[in-house]
UniProtKB/TrEMBL annotation:
<keyword id="KW-0808">Transferase</keyword>
<protein>
    <recommendedName>
        <fullName>Methyltransferase</fullName>
        <ecNumber>2.1.1.-</ecNumber>
    </recommendedName>
</protein>
<dbReference type="GO" id="GO:0008168">
    <property type="term" value="F:methyltransferase activity"/>
</dbReference>
<keyword id="KW-0812">Transmembrane</keyword>
<dbReference type="GO" id="GO:0016020">
    <property type="term" value="C:membrane"/>
</dbReference>
<dbReference type="GO" id="GO:0032259">
    <property type="term" value="P:methylation"/>
</dbReference>
<keyword id="KW-0489">Methyltransferase</keyword>
<dbReference type="InterPro" id="IPR029063">
    <property type="entry name" value="SAM-dependent_MTases_sf"/>
</dbReference>
<keyword id="KW-0325">Glycoprotein</keyword>
<dbReference type="InterPro" id="IPR004159">
    <property type="entry name" value="Put_SAM_MeTrfase"/>
</dbReference>
<keyword id="KW-0472">Membrane</keyword>
<dbReference type="GO" id="GO:0005768">
    <property type="term" value="C:endosome"/>
</dbReference>
<keyword id="KW-1133">Transmembrane helix</keyword>
<keyword id="KW-0735">Signal-anchor</keyword>
<dbReference type="Pfam" id="PF03141">
    <property type="entry name" value="Methyltransf_29"/>
</dbReference>
<dbReference type="GO" id="GO:0005802">
    <property type="term" value="C:trans-Golgi network"/>
</dbReference>
<comment type="similarity">
    <text>Belongs to the methyltransferase superfamily.</text>
</comment>
């Protein structure tokens, strides 16, 4: 029986289709070797394809959790967090049961961390009508109202121009309690009061206490200054959430009973504009904590009514401040009032301990030596932090030179190791992260490095229109001082707990050979749930790790309906979508 040409063609095509299908189902991901990233690394052509996409979308997925679980296969099933405020859920700050059991709230204990056990693995729901954030730099001035639908501050601070609602947007005019003529006028007022403050040169890293919606820090970005703005989660509804939605560095924190999660001698300048902190309370512990994190020779700017009003209440506060600053050897270098009637005083921390020794009374005393990661869950101390040894008057160098410099006689890193680490990260970021990975960097503004080391990843990105929160895990070597010395910002954190930040506040999280280690202390599913909480829809997780860790992450991210891409045996890019579990029918 004759076979037509058409039959032959059909048979050939069918055979070819079967062969292709067999190949795809019996082969591992096609992998292209990455070059070793060494000093003699030769970049591949920019068109090189280094990855194969793996988009997985089942709500339930079998996966191996940990080797410590005897390779037992378990089912990951995700549920939405419950409660009226679940859309903005912060586990360690919203633990109502623990807060109810507090014996005192006098020192802001209810605003501090109280982490639930076990760590929640639920997913926070999205606000109704949530949409991708307004891109930077437009976001500094306006954000989508539906992304942060909190109207309280609009009404509460309407006379002070903090924030206004205009149609679909929240608009930030740059006003503030102390910024009657706007933040631009206020910053110029500071410059005139003390010209030695040269923004973006000798002043690079700033701490803004009780920051409101962070307009002060947002404006200083134009002057090449990076400001860590912080405030508690309190009745000033969602102020830190507003700041991060705007693309301005910020974190939730409070000066209560525990030390701030920063190293000693970190900030070039600290600012407080009506920040409502009683500096002389509890024997002066709040101001002694500022003294701990302020760099030798650094400045403290205090703009508050006790500086420029003389009623009984303000006079008493000013008298107490004069006494306390005298005993910690802070010197007044400027005190003035501007045309709006707002005044400020600028103090400077000493650069040597000679003043401490000359005091008529040794109260408060000098503290013992600082320990590594000492400020994680550490109580405030009623003592003066010791100054670092060496030529503190000559350190740090002016920005941007300090970015590539290491402190002389540093006990944390030698210059050779520091240089090698800087070069390594410059190479990886420029040749792989920016050129090869499936990341749309034009949409990335808020970045977090989960295991920052010396800050090399952030340093390599410093010329891009983004900022990096450098996290030094408490179970790793304490290198956060090096990060601040470079002119970068960061915090200590334990990744087995939740971060002090709102949901949907970062565009990209980065981890380098860390997620495999943290699973020795807690379940990786808990850590991924926290990553999902922090990342915005459309945001990225970029991981450099072993293939064992990467494959484990790929499975979990697939159960979250994230898209994933593996780059041969070393890199994983996960992208979060808008998927959430179906709400249960009540």
């Amino acid at each position: 029986m004759a076979i037509s040409v058409q039959h032959v063609v059909v048979l050939l095509l069918t055979s070819l289709l079967i062969a292709i299908t067999f190949f795809l189902f019996t082969s591992d991901n096609i992998r292209f070797p990455l070059p070793s990233l060494s000093s003699d690394y030769t970049p591949l052509p920019k068109s090189s394809n280094l990855g194969v996409s793996s988009d997985q979308t089942p709500q339930k997925m079998k996966m191996k959790l940990n080797a410590s679980h005897d390779q037992e296969e378990e089912v990951v099933k995700w549920d939405l967090c419950k409660g009226a405020e679940s859309v903005d859920y912060i586990p360690c700050l919203d633990n109502r049961d623990a807060i109810k059991q507090l014996k005192s709230r006098r020192h802001m204990e209810h605003r501090e961390r109280h982490c639930p056990e076990p760590t929640p693995k639920c997913l926070v729901p999205l606000p109704d009508n949530y949409k991708p954030p307004v891109p930077w730099p437009k976001s500094r001035d306006m954000v989508w109202y539906n992304n942060v639908p909190h109207p309280k501050l609009v009404e509460y601070k309407k006379e002070q121009n903090w924030v206004k609602k205009e149609g679909e947007f929240l608009v930030f005019p740059g006003g503030g309690t102390q910024f009657k003529y706007g933040v631009t006028h206020y910053v110029e007022f500071i410059e005139k009061a003390l010209p030695v403050i040269k923004w973006g040169k000798n002043i690079r890293v700033v701490l803004d206490v009780g920051c409101g919606v962070a307009s002060f820090g947002g404006f200083l970005l134009d002057k090449d200054v990076i400001t860590m703005s912080f405030a508690p989660k309190d009745e000033h509804e969602a102020q830190i959430q507003f700041a991060l939605e705007r693309g301005i560095p910020a974190t939730l924190s409070v000066i209560g009973t525990q030390q701030l999660t920063f190293p000693a001698n970190a900030f070039d300048l600290i600012h407080c504009a009506r920040c409502r902190v009683h500096w002389d309370a509890d024997g002066g512990k709040p101001l002694l904590e500022l003294n701990r994190v302020l760099r030798p020779g650094g400045f403290f700017i205090w703009s508050a009514t006790p500086v420029y009003r003389d009623n009984d209440r303000d006079s008493k506060i000013w008298t107490a401040m004069v006494s306390l600053t005298k005993y910690i050897c802070w010197k007044v270098v400027a005190k003035t009032v501007d045309s709006s009637g707002i005044g400020l005083v600028i103090y400077q921390k000493p650069t040597s301990e000679s003043c401490y020794k000359k005091r008529s009374t040794q109260e408060p005393p000098l503290c013992a030596k600082e320990e590594a990661n000492a400020s994680w869950y550490a109580p405030l101390r009623q003592c003066i932090s010791k100054l670092p040894s060496g030529a503190v008057q000559k350190w740090p160098e002016l920005w941007p030179k300090r970015l590539g410099s290491v402190k002389p006689q540093s006990v944390l890193v030698d210059s050779k190791t520091f240089k090698k680490d800087t070069e390594k990260w410059s190479e990886i970021v420029s040749d792989v992260y920016l050129e090869r990975l499936a990341v749309n960097w034009s949409s990335v503004r808020n970045v977090m490095d989960m295991n920052a080391g010396f800050g090399g990843f952030a340093a390599a990105l410093v010329n891009r229109p983004l900022w990096v929160m450098n996290v030094v895990p408490v179970d790793k070597p304490d290198t956060l001082s090096v990060v601040f010395d470079r002119g970068l910002i960061g915090v200590y954190h334990d990744w087995c707990e939740s971060l002090n930040t709102y949901p949907r506040t970062y565009d990209l999280l980065h981890s380098s050979f860390y997620l495999g280690d943290v699973t020795q202390r807690c379940e990786i599913v808990q850590v991924v749930a926290e990553i999902d909480r922090v990342l915005r829809p459309g945001g990225y997780l970029v991981v450099q790790d072993t293939m064992e860790t990467i494959k484990e992450l790929e499975s979990i991210l697939g159960s979250l309906h994230w898209s994933t891409k593996i780059y041969q045996d070393r890199f994983l890019v996960g992208r979060k979508g808008f998927w959430r579990p179906i709400k249960p029918v009540l």
